[in-house]
Description:
Shape: globular
InterPro entries: 2Fe-2S_ferredoxin-like_sf, 2Fe-2S_ferredoxin-type, 2Fe2S_fd_BS, Beta-grasp_dom_sf, FAD-bd_FR_type, FNR_nucleotide-bd, MRET, Riboflavin_synthase-like_b-brl
Cofactor: FAD
Keywords: 2Fe-2S, Flavoprotein, Iron, Iron-sulfur, Metal-binding, Oxidoreductase
Bound molecules: FE2/S2 (inorganic) cluster
Distance between the termini: 33 Å
Number of strands: 20
Number of domains: 3
Protein name: PDR/VanB family oxidoreductase
Oligomer: single chain
Pfam families: Fer2
Amino acid sequence: xxxxxxxxxxxxxxxxxxxxxxxxxxxxxxxxxxxxxxxxxxxxxxxxxxxxxxxxxxxxxxxxxxxxxxxxxxxxxxxxxxxxxxxxxxxxxxxxxxxxxxxxxxxxxxxxxxxxxxxxxxxxxxxxxxxxxxxxxxxxxxxxxxxxxxxxxxxxxxxxxxxxxxxxxxxxxxxxxxxxxxxxxxxxxxxxxxxxxxxxxxxxxxxxxxxxxxxxxxxxxxxxxxxxxxxxxxxxxxxxxxxxxxxxxxxxxxxxxxxxxxxxxxxxxxxxxxxxxxxxxxxxxxxxxxxxxxxxxxxxxxxxxxxxxxxxxxxxxxxxxxxxx
Length: 325
Ligand code: FES
């Protein structure tokens, strides 16, 4: 996109802190919105549309997009769907994070940055609406053209509809029990110069949007995943060497072991969260060598630039990697 100006994967001041749930609202069937604040009312770090935070729950860490007002420095809001397949995260949040409860958080972090464009096409599936809400506000604020196509199981299951109501002309709701499915081919087939396409939702929707935008001039797909991307079978693992430049430690990473595990075992200080290549916590700079990217965070252009790597899942194509660790 020639006119798009990346607002960047802004480097925010990341914090780890206990925040209090100051408001809990049921915004749809199975969806709660939690507003978090510092117990002493202090300002929270700045964030930009697309940012997420980690919730450090007992024995697990989960990522949630910030979906409130970027200008409100004292409150962060997240939306949480009670996932019937929950491995404990959303169930814990729904059952225990009532008003007055505290929860440890880490962040904010942004791997889904809002770029400046003349037009925006937003596509949301279910709870994937959350990162798009502040993006819609930002698009509105800069006077850009935008439209949202929001797919859900039923109207009752689709959160934040009241916030979207003032923009009825730009918003197409697609509750699957009321109308036909989203015709993505028709939507993406329209000529769209200088359009940024943003999508968050189930993997099938993300894959379809990525595929639909590929090879369309002037259209760039930006997607966010909260579960690992389904990929072709990666090449078999081979051993390689990692040189941690700041620590002065060199380790061999054997087949079947992640860079993260190998360097951590050698005493290098590393930070991780999901261990599935989706949250971006373990990202570090590549100083030399070629990465074999296996994460679900970096965009195609970021992969090509080869500047960073997610060390929990990615490996090396070269025999040696020098990392800023
Ligand atoms: S720990 Fe989440 S991407 Fe590596």
